[in-house]
């Protein structure tokens, strides 16, 4: 973080104006802005008596000017689509017309060209329209990653059918909930997941499931068919027409950018998954200022394409699940809307990550959650640097391993971004600022109204001033990240979830003035003077102990580094008769290799006394979502109760070491007699 400048620093800053101006003009390329105008802008910025803000403006000027040029290119594309009222289908078909024989998707030994993707999508559209499905209907898609996955929802969107992209790992009640909350009228399921549908379909008392069942392929030979009444979609589609041109003349051409495209579900780390609404052009909206609210899908794909300087001949390695916004919106969207090629994998594999990148000649790769740490944990081998990947982008790269990761694997650029599937506020790090999740240029703060507001870090409750309005955070002060909701602007709109009640819980009213509304991300970030944002924690994860706030993500980062990048979850647990919550860490160590003395020494050296976990639980695995986010709820419910837990628990001593937690210790704490 930047601190206030003294007089000497101010003088040195002013002496550097000319150098900064020249550098900025080079950044924006061939003097696109005349030197005289640029110098005038710098002189304007240094007026007044606020040297810290002046310094920040000058230092960030080259980055901000470069961003302005990229934004201009992006908005030209968006404006063109908006004027034409273009949908995802229309943009995709224009891509197909440009290069029909270019490979769109690669997976294992198979591939689909753009023309083949269009042909399959057309057949899907014709078949489901003939079956009586119409615009506005919802169909659930339960399927592992396959080449035809994006073709199915793309084809359904031609009819105006909304596809609910169901997490393929869900079972029983959570699966039933995800299907019914979107009001699905049919289910498309792959053969390997047919048993999951059969299980909930046969449960007594389960109501509201769709009666129309489609299977993407026939039942496995030699096994009983769990869904004997399901239609074989592959057989039906393949028998419909042998021609490459499918007759779609009977389908009304009434799809608009305002129409819903898909539902993508939240990961369910805090309860049942919620279906986030993705409108027909949500993939465009990740970085625009002037598009209309319906351009949400398109925004996401084009935003990354322009801001991260993708190339038309790039091949993206996408090992993420296609029901997730990162893999299914940004990764697939870059193919459908920008004409790039993506190499898919059925399931992420850390040991095969670089092998796949080499095999498919990938130049760009995606990551989410803990993927980078998993890859970093693999033994060193020649393939670490034999690949051609120059850029990796995604969200969730921990600052603690960032430098080690890029150094070992020779990655020139990391494009860390921040955002949520349902949110209206997104950030993107385009200048390799280590640890940052993105920034907002100084010139854009008025037209991209995102900010941090004060909150109780433990509860997430927003703090308001005496006038009843929220309080903006200063540089270096943690706060909840919020974005103003403006239904008339795509960038600032909030479509929300299929469940309207769940949507309303994410909305703040009367934030800075009467009548304004903001999206509450629920995440605590910190901003520096240059406009860079850094993720700190999620509200509710932070807890208070000994009068201090403890950010779980920071403690997790420290412990993970000490124990050799093993999985770790940190959370607060209640202690009888004591205010606040004590820290507890759960570490995955199935082989029993963690040295508790070394861990204790590392914790003492890296964390203040109040942030040191009182309990350490060593377990064989940590419950994790399929998008590689740790599930803490079950661990937190278990707490340190030895009646529930069979794993060893270690207890912090007054000298900073850990010893085995015993039944006597447990009883002493429960009775409120422990001196902690």
UniProtKB/TrEMBL annotation:
Topology within the bilayer: Multi-pass membrane protein
Family: Belongs to the ATP-dependent AMP-binding enzyme family.
Keyword Transport on entry: yes
UniProt function note: Acyl-CoA synthetase required for both the import of long chain fatty acids (LCFAs) (C14-C18) and the activation very long chain fatty acids (VLCFAs) (C20-C26) by esterification of the fatty acids into metabolically active CoA-thioesters for subsequent degradation or incorporation into phospholipids. The transport and fatty acyl-CoA synthetase activities are genetically separable and are thus independent activities. Esterifies VLCFAs in the peroxisome matrix. The VLCFAs are actively transported into peroxisomes by a PXA1-PXA2 heterodimeric transporter in the peroxisomal membrane.
Catalytic activity field: tetracosanoate + ATP + CoA = tetracosanoyl-CoA + AMP + diphosphate; a very long-chain fatty acid + ATP + CoA = a very long-chain fatty acyl-CoA + AMP + diphosphate
Domain AMP-binding enzyme C-terminal: 554-629
EC numbers on record: 6.2.1.3
PANTHER family, A to Z: FATTY ACID TRANSPORT PROTEIN 3, ISOFORM A (PTHR43107:SF15), LONG-CHAIN FATTY ACID TRANSPORT PROTEIN (PTHR43107)
Location within or outside the cell: Cell membrane; Peroxisome membrane
One Pfam family in the UniProt entry: AMP-binding_C
Entries under SUPFAM superfamilies matching the protein: Acetyl-CoA synthetase-like (SSF56801)
Any one GO cellular component localisation term in the record: plasma membrane
Keywords in alphabetical order: ATP-binding, Cell membrane, Fatty acid metabolism, Ligase, Lipid metabolism, Lipid transport, Membrane, Nucleotide-binding, Peroxisome, Transmembrane, Transmembrane helix, Transport
GO biological process: long-chain fatty acid import into cell
GO molecular-function term, one example from the UniProt record: long-chain fatty acid transmembrane transporter activity
Membrane-spanning ranges: 283-308, 320-344
Predominant subcellular localization, coarse grouping: membrane
Domain AMP-dependent synthetase/ligase: 92-439
Natural source organism: Anopheles minimus
Name of the protein described by the UniProt record: Very long-chain fatty acid transport protein
């Amino acid at each position: 973080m930047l601190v206030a400048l003294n007089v000497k620093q101010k003088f040195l800053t002013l002496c550097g104006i000319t150098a900064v101006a020249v550098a900025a003009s080079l950044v924006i390329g061939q003097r696109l802005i005349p030197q005289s105008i640029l110098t005038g802008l710098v002189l304007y910025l240094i007026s007044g008596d606020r040297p810290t803000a002046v310094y920040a403006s000058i230092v960030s000027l080259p980055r901000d000017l470069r961003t302005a040029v990229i934004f201009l290119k992006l908005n030209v594309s968006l404006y063109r689509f908006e004027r034409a009222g273009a949908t995802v289908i229309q943009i995709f078909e224009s891509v197909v017309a440009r290069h029909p024989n270019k490979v769109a998707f690669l997976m294992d030994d198979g591939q689909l060209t753009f023309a083949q993707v269009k042909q399959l999508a057309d057949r899907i559209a014709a078949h489901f329209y003939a079956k009586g499905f119409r615009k506005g209907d919802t169909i659930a898609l339960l399927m592992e990653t396959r080449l035809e996955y994006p073709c199915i929802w793309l084809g359904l969107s031609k009819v105006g059918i909304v596809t609910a992209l169901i997490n393929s790992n869900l079972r029983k009640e959570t699966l039933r909930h995800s299907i019914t909350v979107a009001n699905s009228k049919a289910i498309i399921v792959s053969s390997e997941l047919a048993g999951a549908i059969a299980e909930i379909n046969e449960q007594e008392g389960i109501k509201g499931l769709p009666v129309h069942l489609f299977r993407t392929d026939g039942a496995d030979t030699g096994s009983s068919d769990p869904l004997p009444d399901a239609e074989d979609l592959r057989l039906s589609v393949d028998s419909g027409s042998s021609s490459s041109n499918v007759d779609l003349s009977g389908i009304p051409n009434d799809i608009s950018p305002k129409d819903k495209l898909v539902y993508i579900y939240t990961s369910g780390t805090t309860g049942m998954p919620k279906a986030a609404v993705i409108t027909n052009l949500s993939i465009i909206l990740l970085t625009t200022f002037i598009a209309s609210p319906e351009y949400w899908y398109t925004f996401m794909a084009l935003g990354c394409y322009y801001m991260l300087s993708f190339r038309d001949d790039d091949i993206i390695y996408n090992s993420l699940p296609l029901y997730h916004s990162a893999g299914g919106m940004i990764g697939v969207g870059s193919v459908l809307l920008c004409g790039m090629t993506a190499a898919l994998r059925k399931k992420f594999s850390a040991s095969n990550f670089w092998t796949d990148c080499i095999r498919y000649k990938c130049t760009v790769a995606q990551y989410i959650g803990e993927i980078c740490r998993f890859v970093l944990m693999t033994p060193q081998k020649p393939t670490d640097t034999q690949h051609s990947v120059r850029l990796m982008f995604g969200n969730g790269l921990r600052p603690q391993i960032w430098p080690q990761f890029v150094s070992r694997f020779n990655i020139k650029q990391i494009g860390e971004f921040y955002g949520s599937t349902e949110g209206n506020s997104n950030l993107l790090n385009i200048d390799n600022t280590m640890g940052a999740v993105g920034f907002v240029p100084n010139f854009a703060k008025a037209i991209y109204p995102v900010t941090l507001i004060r909150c109780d870090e433990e509860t997430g409750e927003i703090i308001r001033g005496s006038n009843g309005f929220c309080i903006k955070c200063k540089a270096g002060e943690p706060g909840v990240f919020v974005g103003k909701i403006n239904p008339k602007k795509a960038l600032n709109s909030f479509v929300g979830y299929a469940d309207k009640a769940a949507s309303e819980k994410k909305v703040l009213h009367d934030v800075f003035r009467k009548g304004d509304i903001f999206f509450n991300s629920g995440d605590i970030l910190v901003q520096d003077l240059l406009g860079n944002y850094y993720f700190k924690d999620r509200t509710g994860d932070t807890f208070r102990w000994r009068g201090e706030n403890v950010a779980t993500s920071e403690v997790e980062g420290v412990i993970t580094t000490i124990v050799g990048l093993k999985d770790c979850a940190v959370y607060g647990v209640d202690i009888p008769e004591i205010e606040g919550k004590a820290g507890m860490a759960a570490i995955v160590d199935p082989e029993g290799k963690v040295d508790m003395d070394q861990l204790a020494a590392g914790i003492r050296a890296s964390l203040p006394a109040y942030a040191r976990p009182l309990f350490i639980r060593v377990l064989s695995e940590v419950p994790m979502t399929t998008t590689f986010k740790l599930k803490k709820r079950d661990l937190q419910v278990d707490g340190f109760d030895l009646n529930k837990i069979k794993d060893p628990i270690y207890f912090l001593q007054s000298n900073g070491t850990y010893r085995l937690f015993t039944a006597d210790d447990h009883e002493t704490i429960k009775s409120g007699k422990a001196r902690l």
